Amino acid sequence: MHYFISLLLVIIGLHVSIQSVTVLVSKPRNYKSVLTVSNGMSWGSWGSMDLCPTGMYAAGFSLKVEEISYAPWDDNTALNGIRLHCIDPSRALEVSYYDYATVQSEVGSFGKWTEIKWCPFGILTAFQLRVDTYQVIADNSAANNIMFKCSHGSFLEGDGTDWGYWGDWSSTCQGSGICGIMTRVQEHEGIWIDDTALNDVRMYCCGSN
């Protein structure tokens, strides 16, 4: 009897050991297409791409913004960063979200983060950028604000600044939604050089897989 119990414990122990070393490898997420706009500026360098977790899409966003100062000695940078807030699309008809993931690319050094703006329905599918074009003598601030289109037709304008002009809309994610971001940001250049922070952005669309 004792031999049987000992043998049983050995078998159970081997089973537990085998189970404990089982590793599940998740499949890397692939994007379907890239959304760009034509009015972005070219100072700085592109940061890394950051994608929502698999199965999630951006339904909201927030901005890092330095408020405009009109003092002649101030160096304005306006828009410094963009965060996408990702949800499970099965919850895309809700107004408020509590279980979400946040992704961002390169972010500038100045300003504060705004409150999240959510699509009232659906997920983000296209964007438009407000950009202050090159100034020969005056202060350059590059990107100032961003606007998104939601899959159910509504529009979300960010709480950025109002220098510059809105450019053309990007193309629209087809049969999917925005799932990732990459930003072009000029790092802080020092006291005697004109800083612009965020210059341009790319959005990534993911399919249903």
UniProtKB/TrEMBL annotation:
Task: Give one Pfam family.
Answer: VOMI
Annotated signal sequence is: 1-20
* UniProt keyword annotations, A-Z: Signal
Q: Which residues form a coiled coil?
A: none
GO cellular component terms attached to this protein's record: extracellular space
Q: Which InterPro entries does the annotation name?
A: VOMI, VOMI_sf
**Protein name per the record:** Vitelline membrane outer layer protein 1 homolog
Lineage of source species = Eukaryota, Metazoa, Chordata, Craniata, Vertebrata
